[in-house]
Amino acid sequence: MDRKQFVNPLSDLSSASKTAEPCVMVIFGATGDLTSRRLVPALYNLARDGQLPAHFACVGFARRDKNHEIFRKEMRNGVERFSRVQPVDDTLWDAFSSQLFYHRSEFHDDAGYEALKAFLNDLDQQFDTKGNRLFYLSTQPSYFPEIIQKLSQHQLLSDPKQTNGRWSRVIIEKPFGHDLQSAEALQQHISQYLDESQIYRIDHWLGKETVQNLLVFRFCNPIFESVWNNRYIDHVQITVSEDIGIGTRGHFFEEEGMLRDIVQNHVMQLLSLVAMEPPTRLNAQAIHDEKVKVLESIRPIPINEIDKHAVRGQYGPGYINGSSVCGYRDENDVSPESNIETYAALELYIDNWRWAGVPFYLRAGKRLPKRTTEIAVTFREAPGGCLYQENGQTLDPNVLVIRIQPNEGISFKMNCKVPGINSPIQSVNMDFRYDSYFGISPPEAYERLICDCMAGDGTLFARIDEVMASWKLLTPVLDRWAETRADFPNYQAGSWGPKAADEMLARQGKRWRLI
Amino acid sequence: MKEHCEDIQIADIEKELERLKAIQKSPSACLFNLVAFANTSRQMDSLSAIIQKTMGQFPCRVLFIKHHKQMKEPLLRIDLVHATEKSNGGPIAGDLITIEVSCDQLKRIPFILLSHIVSDLPIHLLWGEDPAKDEVILPSIGHFCTRLIFDTDPKVDSLPAFSSQLLQTMQRYPNLEFVDINWIWITGWRDVLSQVFDSPGALQNLQRCDSIDIFYNQHEGAFSKPTYLQIAYLLGWLSSRLKWEILSYESSDSATKCLCKNGSKEFVINLIPQTHTHLYPGTIVGMDLNCEENCQYSIFPLADSAKVVVHISTNTTCQLPFMLPLPCLKKGLPYIRELFFSPISTQYQPTLQAIQQLP
What we know:
- The complex is a heterodimer.
- Chain A is an alpha/beta fold.
- Chain A has helices at residues 33-48, 68-82, 90-97, 110-127, 144-153, 180-190, 209-219, 222-225, 250-275, 284-296, 306-309, 387-390, 434-437, 445-454, 464-483, 499-506; strands at residues 23-28, 56-62, 100-104, 133-137, 168-173, 199-202, 233-241, 310-313, 315-316, 318-320, 323-325, 343-349, 359-365, 372-379, 399-405, 409-417, 425-433, 491-492.
- An 8-stranded mixed beta sheet of chain A has the order 8-12-13-7-14-15-16-17, with helices on both faces.
- Chain A starts with 22 loop residues before the first strand and ends in a 9-residue tail after the last helix.
């Protein structure tokens, strides 16, 4: 019997979660931060929860001189520092680390890839991983084309059209491209070697429980879906605020800026989840289709109006948590005349029946007063003058706030009468907090995403047309900002960003939420 | 942190709980109601342990009915605890209403429950014995409830009757999900076997086996005696999935020997007791499968680890041993999550039907 036709009578589909398939995972750039901080701790916790495939091995691929033991020791340190579950279980670690290996090579070295191929074949024999390969590109984006080409050249990528049951998948870290043109070029290059079904563009925010809950919240609570449109919603604000600066990432950030680093991927993903139509099915394709539809419905910003609908900022010296901090241009590896934005705000409109006339205000910034990510849906005021307003009462609009991080949860602001005779009306919050209900620490985003990739589920990864749609929208803004010098710095570290961002909303009679 | 008050009036339950909450300033959150029922002191201790784990993981209201069957004098006593546990996330707060009741007062219990359940939330039942035996509480509130979790210990020769009655009870409450803790405890072994025999060739080996030795723990634990139910579930599950027939069984001190049939082929399943003081009574501790042409499978847990080691050998080959996860579903969050949130297996009812057919 063909294995593909085999149905295991012992398998319990009713209770099984997605089954991650046997595979060898190869992490390119394994000596970087991401591997020890996120990837290996994620694999360890998957092993701990019994979610890692029974037949599994992991190979770190990098150019530094190490052996298996040194690599395992370094990964143990990473798990001890960064695993969400502590302490590390020695017995579990011993079993898990026996599946970790290191392969030293340069990314351009053909002999290194041939040796990798032989090594992976040995691991197939040893761990019965069935020839399945998961390649995680945790490297600088500039290496992606070369690595994928070499993998193909050395027959390390299997053809998805072949029916031998083997698969190979490639996880690519963001950013996918630098702008629309480079994203198209990258896609054109890698699609010579890979089918779209083999490419998993990771945006780790999509693995967060609170982000996944957006779809559940919207489509499992009919009361909210019935008012989720322009008849009831006044505007939406999406905020990604960080109180930290750029730390040691100056070199990287000078090439990127806030719009590329955060808005093009994370924020646009949040926007698509908030604004999309209900999918026809709960599968990857249907969900991606709806996300793309909404992204393509966003009105392009006219070139001559970019300054009106897009604001950039760069932090100067200021105070965070009472301590003085330097300005961006004084950070390490940053040019003293840098034109790079550490703050970006946009006013967008979605031209479809659901959202026509509802502005979406997006902002992302560093060195803002606090670390928070939230989506705030502000509803329209009571129609035709509410009775209570005749008596001189001022009413706050209802606001639904979805807190992505920290203090994960959802709150709803509503108006309430203060007890007493002739008392005013006061707004109060109905509040749901994840930690009060589900005190346990949920799986980290990378755990979910790696597991999904092993199971062949691309729902929580970005599809190419989503990526292109957001590049198409934002590339004109990037071009405009690159061509013109801004008057930087224009906001103090510890404040909520440049005045121009406030003015952008004030023109519509609105203002940013004070979080 | 716990605040408690004892021997309070029924009418004061909510007022006292509010008072205790105010003292701790605990967060207001509740995921579900849990009504627990125990008839014997062993059951009370066993359920107390589960309740404590549950309240440490999820905010909930627990109504724990301790039925003192032997008590001659009327007893209806209510004690309250409001507990706040620290977790990896935030604090978890919960209410524990303990109701000690004598036989003649049992009929009042449903009325107490109905007025003190937190509204709009799921109601889960936790029964320390076979739910088919209850004729007072379950008939009154069963139709409002979401899930019935139970732990029972039928005698070997009454397994078919137990199974039959349980199936009838399940039909009486079609909206209630029935979760036997003993079934949960073999989930890991079911997953392991599913993964070991996850190919046409391997499954064929299983279907053509000559004998299977299943080792289990006969040591009596703090809360319960050894139960054959886990073994029975495993055999019933294999029978129902693979269309085996159990023809007879015969017990001796050293083992219970079951004669089985698969199509025209007869084979033997030996249930071999061992003593492991650190394991729960009735826990399955390993399996040896002897198949045709000297093909052998040996599956045993790795010491102090949530994994099993699988050895497969034939006359001519000996595969490298490999490991599979065997989640310890008896403690911590996986256990509690499995009890309250995991979907009910569609394989459970067919397993009960297979046990019903035991000779």
